[in-house]
Amino acid sequence: MRPQQHRTLNRVLAALTIVVSLALALVLFLGDRERAAPPQPAPQTQCGQPALAYDGGHPFTADQARDVAGVHAAACAGDYAALAPFIRSVPQTNLPTLPSATTMVEEWRSNDPTGVKLRAVASVLEQPGIGHQGGLSFCHPSKGHVAFSRGTIDMPPGLGGFEFPRQGQPLDCFFL
Fold first, then answer.
1. How far apart are CA 164 and CA 146, in angstroms?
2. Residue 158 near residue 88, CB atoms below 8 Å
3. What share of the chain is helix, strand, coil (3-state, %, to 5)?
């Protein structure tokens, strides 16, 4: 091959290498943007009214009704941050191993970034409540269980947590 042909071939190969590299960089950039996009929230659903009475018809106390209505509104809106004021918070000096309300909300959000489980919570809170020694519970076998603690001398009352059916197995609401 002549030197002129070598130069032409080198230029073509260099140009081809640049084009392939730019195309690869563009594909990787666009792929990262799609993966880094925040999850889209679940579509807003129509929520009913929260239950404000026990399954026997006896109304909740004003504090219980306020908490249930507030958690229902936050759950219906898919707003995890709005749950924080309803979570029982204990001074870390009393129970240093109990996570703060903010930590609990962040953990719940990371496990359900689209808020689908929150919509289930809203639906469960539309069922009559069940009173027991530990506080107030709401349960629907296929949607989940929501518990409000009654509080103790060391712990104020508030939202205790959620439980959801696992692997399609319904919850046993009778024993909760």
1. 9
2. yes
3. 45, 15, 40
Closest by CA to 140, choosing from 119, 155, 150, 125, is 125
Distance CA 88, CA 2 (A): 83
- Whole-prediction pTM: 0.69
**Cα(134)–Cα(136) distance, rounded to whole angstroms?**
7
What burial letters (b/e) apply to 146-158, b meaning 16+ CB within 10 Å?
bbbbbeeeebebb
Residue appearing with tokens 């504090």:
63
Q: What is the DSSP string of 132-145?
A: ETTEEEEEETTTEE
- Burial class, 5, CB count within 10 angstroms (exposed 0-12 / middle 13-18 / buried 19+): exposed
Q: What H or E segment, with its residue span, contains residue 124?
A: helix 116-124
Condensed to tens digits (0 to 9), the pLDDT of residues 91-135 reads: 555 555 667 778 888 888 888 888 888 889 999 999 999 888 878
